[in-house]
């Protein structure tokens, strides 16, 4: 994950995002490797660039809305942005060791 943190709240954003789960997978989106970048600016803008496990994810809107809400809940964040990308495409190698263990891939 790339972090550019001029506002000094990236750790709090990451922690907030660790409470977001894909309803079909019992692992949070950070451990799944779905969060590619956290960028904050001194003006209070916080942007998360993320992906989904599949482009046709049936719960995409719900996950993106929850990510938006979690970013907005962090102190000092005035403007929260979520950008969805599929470049690079997500694959299992992006998961943390903890996620692979939890899902039985180790």
UniProtKB/TrEMBL annotation:
Database matches in Pfam families: FeS_assembly_P (PF01883)
Entry coiled-coil feature ranges: none
Protein name: Iron-sulfur cluster assembly protein
Originating species: Albibacterium profundi
Segment forming the signal sequence: none
Domain MIP18 family-like residues, every copy: 11-82
UniProt lineage: Bacteria, Pseudomonadati, Bacteroidota, Sphingobacteriia, Sphingobacteriales
PANTHER family: FE-S PROTEIN MATURATION AUXILIARY FACTOR YITW (PTHR42831)
